[in-house]
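Quick check before the chapter quiz. The format below is the same one you will see on the exam, so make sure you can read both the input and the output lines.
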Amino acid sequence: MDPDNEVESFLGQGNEEDEDEKKMKWKRPPSSYGSMKSESDEMEENEENVAVADSSPCPVVLPDPTALDETRLRMIRSESPETLYTMTTQQTRPLGGLVIETRLSDLGNMSEENDEEDMDEVLVTNSPEPPEFVEPDDPMTDENSQPGKLHPEQDLGHLFKTIQNTLSKLTEEELFKFKMSFYQWEPAITLQQTMEGDMLDFVDRILELLGQDRVVLHVLRTLEVVNKKEESEDLRNQLKRFMTRFYLKQYLIRKHQVIREGVVRAGKQNLLDTIYVEPHISTCGYGGVDPSHELPQPPTHLQVPTEDTFVSLNNLFRLQKEDGTPVRTVLTTGLPGIGMSVSVGKFCLDWAEFRSNKDLQFVIKLSFRSIWYIRNKKTPPTPKMSIMEVLEYRHHEFKDIQYLEEEDCKFLIIMDSFDCYQAHLDWENAPVINDNYTQAPMDVLVVNIIRGTVLRGARVWILGRRAAVSQIPSKFIDVVTEIQGFSHEMKDEFLEKRFYKKDLGAKIVAHYKRQPMLQMLCRQPFVSWMVSAVFERCYRYLDYGVHPPRLTPFCVSIMTVQTNRRLQFYYDKSDNELKWSNEDKHMLMMLGKMALKMLERKTSVFYEEDVKDCGMNLTEVTVWSGMCTELPSAASDGKRRFCFIHLTMQEFMAALYVYHTFRTESKNVLDSRSKILAYMDNNKTPVGMIQCALTRVFGSHLGHWDMFLRFLCGLHNTDCHEKQLCGYLYSRNSPKMLGLDDVQKLLEQSIRTAEEKHRDRVENLKECLREMTQEDE
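Here is the expected output.
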């Protein structure tokens, strides 16, 4: 139809639509809670009859049952956007109820009759008590789907009705003061939006514009401002579960919204949501060690889980046991630096910001590190505490709460950093506690939380390094998951998301791929972060990126950072106290000595007796060092098996031990001849040491000494032994290495020889020469 004709047809309808316009004029605006239906059809019919018979000028609703049933008609309300919940609103007025209509006139033009009314009369709105909230159709009706449904006492409908009931107790004058005070302290809402409509409109509108948390806080504060402290306290008690959840959310958001990586610099922190890339998490754990390697290696028994075992981070507590019942206790493990702590932060942040797991009423973080602190540092009135006292100590919002014991209270306890709890736990003989208020030693409380005898309604998420969590009896664990790290696509995504300049991210991705072994190590998010931090700094200099990156400096950095973390996490050292003691240096060297013996035996697995033979503590090596991990026990003998976090780190630690021993003791541990012949020979020079290593390389058909040689040559680079290792392994005034020119000549001669006799070793020898001679641009 032509637009002009269409307008004329509408204008020409005349008297036919007069009645409809009169009806539509007095219908109340649509509400976000239109899905809340009237209490009964009979009540609606009675109120219709009263409204028609009443000749007073008060506006009333003339409901249209036909339109209501067939079309679910939506009214038009100015400056109030519809929300997800808008479907229809039915307004009625009880007998004797006073109606204030402000939509059609300014507040100052109220009728004189209303001005003469008693200002102390209790205000009764023309809106009935909202019935139970009816959520819109949700395609995810399965209880195991995301993001989950809120508890009835925490959903939008209950919140709306509670606030409306509280404000209904105010007189007309008090409500006016309340609205004015609310408007003055809330810049996101206008005066017209505050004063327009009835009380149901007001509550509806502020929930739409401000959000649930903000509305509750402002309503409570405004009630106190207008001297309605009793009503404020009453509302706070009715919304106690909501307020507890709110305080927990704010705590988790403050703690995890910003991720702190490495040395924290003011203004240089990143938001977790902007840089987070979720790693692969598998329900089938083989130890988490990546068997891939740049060079050919001896056969290994390391396995990698398949993609069909992967599970999303936010779906961990959607998993089910073999009998189909929901899981209670989930154990997540992984290599040091694989991202367990960051994954916990992302899980908490998603819950706090209503993105997932909304059916969990509370997510309570109670790390083993904090429990260990309470056990040793806090001095309670008694040597024992109950689990509720522990929760109250960590979160004051849980004081005097009772609903954690209710059957419908679904909450989660996150207990990460199990390796930080250094006490021995007696799983078999610890007393059983069946009450949340029974006081007991902290060790007993930990055992009973994992047993499930206290906090019975809680889901429990335990995280820790495999060598530490392996002591937990399997009968207390429903599901074991393992963080596998990044795929190749995830590595690139992680590096690109960290930089606002897309060209810089693309440069870094292209540059790190030029070093295949570095690309494999970036499977660990910790190494990926290190790559991004190093290359971001390097690309500030002109002409950087001409040559491929060297591998040795990154392995030195991995060892340095993991050793510093060991001192911080397990020995409570501050950033200014991270000076390595002689014991720290000795442990690293003994770790390298064991790695060298493993290379000689052509194996990547070691056992408890191997650790003791080198004079080391098993927990220090396999849990705290950050360089090793535990593998699942073999079914044949049941002995505990361990390995380095990657075969590359085993080869690096072996090379570091050889280099350090030569530099500090002038001893060539690669020379297998008798001490007398070794003393008479010239092998006590760098050339002699490299020559012994070359002999092993050319004598090995498996090639398991090739990467060792590359690291040994890389450690002779002045950038490594004069910059990176100084201040940690060596003092600043240590004498410089001599004879490096002779080593370079030896490598060049070996390359020429290998081109004739060992063609398959030429490329690695060239890499060895580059690792030693290449200077950082």
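If your answer matched, good. Residues 6-141 have pLDDT under 50 and may be disordered.
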